[in-house]
């Protein structure tokens, strides 16, 4: 019997992996894809990194610095569920990209290095998840190496993140003796992930013989203590973002990864409701709705195309259907939506709420755009962060000013930089959240547009989106401060201030003007 829409939607799990660099995100992604059958050999994700020289030139930056600049999506199926992993750039200079990606997930896996515990970037990413109440599953990685005491790690998560922990499995052994996981709830054990299902045992004593003699008592005692002292897993509390189930393992040595996939299937929520301006949209509604959270250019050097990554919020997307683009009210034919697997993409004939499809286009779609089957609604919440660094772009060849303007507009539409056009007609200002974004801009302008540029310090260092309840108040401010006002890509006004002191001064002088550090796309 054909699957109903509700059934198809309920099998979707869309999540991101958050981690401090080096905790093991890439290795874990590889293993998830491997066990999900999406790739034949572990190492494909890494291999993809190495193949980058065959991709467009600007990715040299990524290669040279060994960081992942590109966000993408990977899909695999396991035990009847469809998993969509949304990858996020590891480097904090691309944080805005990561934050926008997190608006498109329903859950997150937090990977923690068992020796290092909570690191700065884990904390930051966690805070973004908390702002959006995204449920989090914790994976304590690298148990095959010298690690901290598991109770100590749990305490640290509770203290630093103010998050209740519920260990679902307990590690059998440590570092050299680490040999599997013990499920505290149902008394099953799994050695390595080559064991697809766990084996039921009578209690921790039954497994202790897998350990050297001097570690056996400790293991049995720890399991008893974990059962008595730790909270049991409460799914409701997890879904509300108050509690995290914890798993111990080693992505590299294939331990605990199946526990994690099962947890994603059993605990993580199916596609959530999404808030739009006029109403809340439920995932299992008939009609398709989606929003764009990411634009990526030149994924394939053979087709200099631009892919908009759209998260489907409700219904079913069918290849060839027409969608209404909320920002312009125009129709858009979805003739070639794509799915992404480990190393290739494929035409998507149908996709359901929770799925992410790539929509090739030539600049029609922008970050934050809403697509529907006709209904006039706009999804809320894709954030735009005010830049920390503002620069003027200096062209080496002044004859190419027009070309530069077009190129900057395109880069801004992709979310590489933000672009502000001053009201007084002076040259445009680019804004970025992290300095590496400027390097990417420079590299791409040179490689893709033949425009060698340098950057000049502008007299501004702070930028705020401005609005007022009464239009006349805004007009008054804009007229009075014309030299410090610019428009963003959407034509929305921003106030550019020299420093935070003058920002504070002006906002006290003009209390009717709201100055926002974050703009939500609309
Ligand atoms: P990312 O920066 O978070 O993507 O981390 P990677 O997946 O690239 O891993 C960083 C390093 O840790 C690599 O050298 C991995 O081989 C290693 N690594 C990842 N997982 C484990 C593990 O479970 N045990 C050990 N011993 N090393 C691991």
Structure, briefly:
This protein has 15 helices and 33 strands. With 522 residues, it is α+β, with helices and mostly antiparallel strands. It starts with a helix and ends with a strand.
Structural account:
This protein is α+β, with helices and mostly antiparallel strands and 522 residues long. It has three domains: 5-69 and 106-267, P-loop containing nucleotide triphosphate hydrolases (Rossmann fold); 274-372, Rossmann fold (3-Layer(aba) Sandwich), CATH 3.40.50; 383-520, Alpha-Beta Plaits (2-Layer Sandwich), CATH 3.30.70.3280. Helix content is 28%, strand content 29%. The protein contains 15 helices and 33 strands. It has an eight-stranded antiparallel β-sheet. The longest helix is centred in the middle third of the chain and has 17 residues, at 213-229. The protein is globular. Mean pLDDT is 89; it is low at 40-59 and 65-71. The site of guanosine-5'-diphosphate (GDP) has 17 residues, from helix 2.
Q: Radius of gyration, rounded?
A: 25 Å
Mean of the pLDDT scores? 89
- The second-level CATH architecture of the largest domain is 3-Layer(aba) Sandwich
Count every helix, treating DSSP H or I runs of 4 or more residues as helices. 15
How does the overall form come out from the CA principal axes? globular
Give the distinct bound molecules: guanosine-5'-diphosphate
Largest sheet: 8 strands, antiparallel
Strand content: 25-35%
Q: Report the end-to-end length measured between terminal Cα atoms.
A: 40 Å
How many β strands by DSSP? Answer: 33
CATH class descriptor of the largest domain: Alpha Beta
Number of structural domains: 3
Main structural class: alpha+beta
The CATH topology of the largest domain turns out to be: Rossmann fold
Across the major sheet, the strand order is 28-25-27-26-30-31-29-32
